[in-house]
């Protein structure tokens, strides 16, 4: 179980998160909101990459800051593309990440092949990351996130840069991974999460403005679909509305 109590984050004069509280059990959660809503800030706090200005994050009742390597062992995180080590091959990158996660060297080859198959990257694993397309890099990030069978998986815009077929494939894989673990997916592409999320969390200006199942949110807002809910709540934010991806 993941618990957040009154999480706030301030950057000088900007309040990025304001008293966010959540309790997440096993299942798929969609974190929806426009750019600048605080989604990435919240995810980086959950993963321990960023300290909150206030509040606490607990994993099974213990603050994550005191768990150290124990928390990292149960955590899988796929950030938006960054720091991908262009001089590494895909397989070497996964080996490096497996070592950081504490996966024993004798277990790494089988585990690396498993995650490569999972994201359809086996044939390209020997190529340099610098030669990868954006979509291939995204799939590699997802592969490293699921190394070691983590119980908490955090995915920040996991389908960014993927073609329609790969988007559907990753969406199906996320749904398959959900048994016995928590998966939190941040996106502004409503169709990527609508069909697989057990619960949707709507974030605006650093605050949770609503949460519930797709059906509940549609009923509350008198909308025909989650995309309609999104447009009613965020449609005036500019160009951050949802993409109608397959």
The CATH architecture name reads: 3-Layer(aba) Sandwich
* Count of the separate structural domains: 1
Give the integer mean of the pLDDT values.
89
CATH superfamily: P-loop containing nucleotide triphosphate hydrolases
* Class computed from helices, strands and strand pairing: alpha/beta
Shape: globular
Task: Provide keyphrases for this structure.
alpha/beta, globular, 35% helix, 246 residues, 10 helices, disordered C terminus, six-stranded mixed beta sheet, Rossmann fold, four-stranded antiparallel beta sheet, single chain
Question: Can you tell me about this structure?
Answer:
With 246 residues, this protein is an alpha/beta fold. The chain has a single domain, classed as 3-Layer(aba) Sandwich (Rossmann fold). The protein contains ten helices and ten strands. Helix 4 (90-100) crosses helix 5 (108-118) and helix 9 crosses helix 10. Residues 236-246 have low confidence and may be disordered.
Topology:
Layout (H helix, E strand, L loop, with lengths): L1 E10 L2 E11 L2 E6 L6 H8 L7 E6 L2 E2 H4 L1 H6 E4 L11 H11 L7 H11 L15 H12 L6 E5 L7 H14 L4 E6 L3 H4 L4 E6 L2 E6 L1 H8 L4 H9 L12
Parallel strand pairs: 3-8, 3-9, 6-7, 7-8
Antiparallel strand pairs: 1-2, 1-4, 4-5, 9-10
Describe the structure in brief.
With 246 residues, the chain is α/β, with parallel strands linked by helices. The protein has helices spanning 39-46, 64-67, 69-74, 90-100, 108-118, 134-145, 164-177, 191-194, 214-221, 226-234; strands at 2-11, 14-24, 27-32, 54-59, 62-63, 75-78, 152-156, 182-187, 199-204, 207-212.
């Amino acid at each position: 179980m993941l618990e957040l109590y009154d999480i706030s984050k301030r950057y000088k004069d900007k309040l990025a998160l304001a008293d966010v509280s959540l309790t997440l059990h096993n299942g798929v959660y969609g974190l929806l909101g426009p750019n600048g809503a605080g989604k990435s800030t919240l995810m980086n706090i959950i993963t321990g990459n960023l300290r909150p200005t206030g509040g606490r994050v607990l994993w099974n009742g213990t603050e994550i800051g005191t768990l150290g390597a124990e928390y990292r062992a149960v955590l899988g995180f796929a950030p938006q593309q960054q720091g991908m080590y262009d001089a590494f091959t895909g397989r070497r990158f996964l080996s490096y990440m497996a070592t950081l996660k504490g996966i024993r060297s004798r277990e790494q080859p089988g585990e690396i092949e498993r995650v490569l198959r999972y994201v359809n990257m086996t044939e390209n694993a020997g190529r340099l990351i610098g030669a990868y397309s954006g979509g291939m890099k995204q799939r590699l990030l997802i592969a490293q996130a699921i190394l070691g069978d983590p119980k908490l998986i955090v995915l920040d815009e996991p389908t960014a840069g993927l073609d329609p077929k790969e988007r559907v494939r990753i969406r199906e894989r996320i749904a398959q991974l959900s048994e016995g673990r928590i998966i939190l997916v941040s996106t502004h592409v409503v169709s990527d999460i609508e069909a697989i999320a057990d619960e949707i969390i709507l974030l605006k200006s650093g605050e949770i403005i609503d949460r519930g199942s797709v059906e509940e949110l549609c009923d509350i807002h008198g909308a025909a679909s989650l995309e309609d809910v999104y447009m009613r709540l965020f449609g005036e934010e500019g160009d951050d509305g949802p993409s109608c991806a397959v």
